[in-house]
Amino acid sequence: MDPTKNARIWQVVSLIPKGRVATYGQVARMAGLPNHARMVGSVLKQLPHGSGLPWHRVINSKGCLSFPRDSKQFSIQKEKLEAEGIIFDNQKVSLQRFQWQGE
């Protein structure tokens, strides 16, 4: 992993406001890494435990969480988003309503 690219991804994720979400592709574009959505996922997966970065605000382009539904990570991410006022309808977040328009 390139530390400079990681830092750019972390910077974008740190800007996502409470109660909003961004997609992996959106974070990649805003970090100057278009077409690197998977890299965003890889970088976030490697965050140290207890990191203050709001990783939970990054979801996929369909408005869904990327973790398997029956996983602990899925439950944690969903709980964190719901605590911020994000509403799930049929396991999806309305990007039209909740997507951060920071671009």
Summarize the structure in short.
This protein has 103 residues and is mostly helical. The chain is built from 5 helices and 4 strands, in the order H-E-H-H-E-H-E-E-H. It has a single domain, classed as Winged helix-like DNA-binding domain superfamily/Winged helix DNA-binding domain (Arc Repressor Mutant, subunit A, Orthogonal Bundle), CATH 1.10.10.10.
Provide a descriptive summary of the structure in words.
With 103 residues, this protein is mainly α. It has helices at residues 3-15, 24-30, 37-45, 72-83, 95-98; strands at 22-23, 58-59, 88-89, 92-93. The chain has a single domain (3-96), classed as Orthogonal Bundle (Arc Repressor Mutant, subunit A), CATH 1.10.10.10. It has five helices and four strands; from the N terminus they run H-E-H-H-E-H-E-E-H. The strands form two sheets. Strands 1-2 form a two-stranded parallel sheet. Strands 3-4 form a two-stranded antiparallel sheet. A hairpin with a 2-residue loop joins strand 3 and strand 4. Helix 2 packs across helix 3 (37-45). The radius of gyration is 13 Å and the shape is globular.
Shape: globular
Structural class: mainly alpha
Amino-to-carboxy terminus distance: 25 Å
Low-pLDDT segments, ≥5 res: none
Strand order of the largest sheet: 1-2
How much β-strand is present in the residues? 5-15%
Order of helices and strands: HEHHEHEEH
**Count of strand segments:** 4
The H-level CATH homologous superfamily, spelled out, is Winged helix-like DNA-binding domain superfamily/Winged helix DNA-binding domain
Which CATH first-tier class would you pick? Mainly Alpha
CATH-scheme architecture: Orthogonal Bundle
Helix content: 40-55%
- The total domain count is 1
Mean pLDDT: 95
How many DSSP H or I helices?
5
CATH topology: Arc Repressor Mutant, subunit A
Radius of gyration of CA atoms, rounded to a whole number: 13 Å
- Note the main sheet: 2 strands, parallel
